[in-house]
């Protein structure tokens, strides 16, 4: 496990994370070795083990970093929307933005998910990280809908599961058939109508 703290540790950790993403995307999570990650980052195994206990822990750090960055970008974009323009269509537009670099992350996280399905311990750990991501997504969605004068008629975290499934399932199809289904196309087309069917106005609460 990580020991102590030095001024170089954050830079070392960041370099290992960046190298891991590239290495996992190129070779696959299972096939990639710690040595390959260290070589790509320009560090020794000692530097690796002073930051991470295992390849699985390295992936989970990548998962958290990616989730936090994605959620922060979406939150900033949502907060920048003027109150009078907080529509479901605007939400769908912002949620449909998929950066080109997302393909590498999709390859890595999909393979780790398959690994977790086969390994109960990995599944338990991944589920905890997934739950934190969904909770943050649910909170952000609830806040944006409130600005639009709306609320979900289903539990927000259940809807967050649906959003994750829509994104991941859509990307799987997009990366196979990018011309037929550009990344984010399903969100742009269906997210607003879906939300419209599963939300109600604040003013109707208690009048049903």
Give an overview of the whole structure.
InterPro entries: BetI_C, Homeodomain-like_sf, HTH-type_TetR-like_transc_reg, HTH_TetR, Tet_transcr_reg_TetR-rel_C_sf. Pfam families: TetR_C_6, TetR_N. This is TetR family transcriptional regulator. Keywords: DNA-binding, Repressor, Signal, Transcription, Transcription regulation. GO terms for molecular function: DNA-binding transcription factor activity; transcription cis-regulatory region binding. By secondary structure, the chain is an all-alpha fold. It has two domains: 52 residues, Arc Repressor Mutant, subunit A, CATH 1.10.10.60; 147 residues, Orthogonal Bundle (Tetracycline Repressor, domain 2), CATH 1.10.357.10. Helices cover 69% and strands 3% of the residues. The protein contains nine helices and two strands, in the order αααααααβααβ. It has a two-stranded antiparallel ribbon. Helix 4 packs parallel to helix 7 and helix 5 packs antiparallel against helix 9. The longest helix is centred in the middle third of the chain and has 28 residues.
């Amino acid at each position: 496990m990580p020991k102590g703290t030095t001024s170089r540790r954050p830079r070392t950790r960041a370099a290992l994370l960046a190298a891991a993403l590239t290495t996992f995307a190129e070779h696959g999570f299972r096939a990639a070795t710690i040595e390959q990650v260290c070589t790509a980052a320009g560090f020794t195994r000692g530097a690796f083990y002073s930051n991470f206990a295992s390849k699985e822990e390295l992936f989970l750090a990548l998962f958290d970093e990616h989730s936090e960055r994605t959620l922060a970008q979406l939150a900033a974009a949502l907060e920048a929307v003027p109150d009078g323009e907080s529509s479901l269509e605007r939400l769908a537009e912002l949620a449909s933005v998929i950066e080109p670099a997302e393909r590498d992350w999709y390859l890595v996280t999909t393979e780790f998910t398959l690994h977790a399905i086969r390994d109960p311990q990995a599944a338990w750990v991944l589920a905890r990280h997934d739950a934190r991501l969904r909770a943050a997504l649910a909170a952000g969605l609830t806040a944006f809908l409130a600005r639009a004068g709306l609320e979900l008629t289903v539990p927000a975290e259940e809807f967050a599961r649906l959003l994750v499934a829509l994104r991941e399932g859509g990307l799987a199809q997009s990366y196979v058939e990018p011309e037929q289904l550009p990344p984010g196309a399903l969100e742009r087309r269906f997210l607003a109508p879906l939300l419209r069917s599963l939300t109600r106005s604040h003013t109707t609460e208690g009048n049903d």
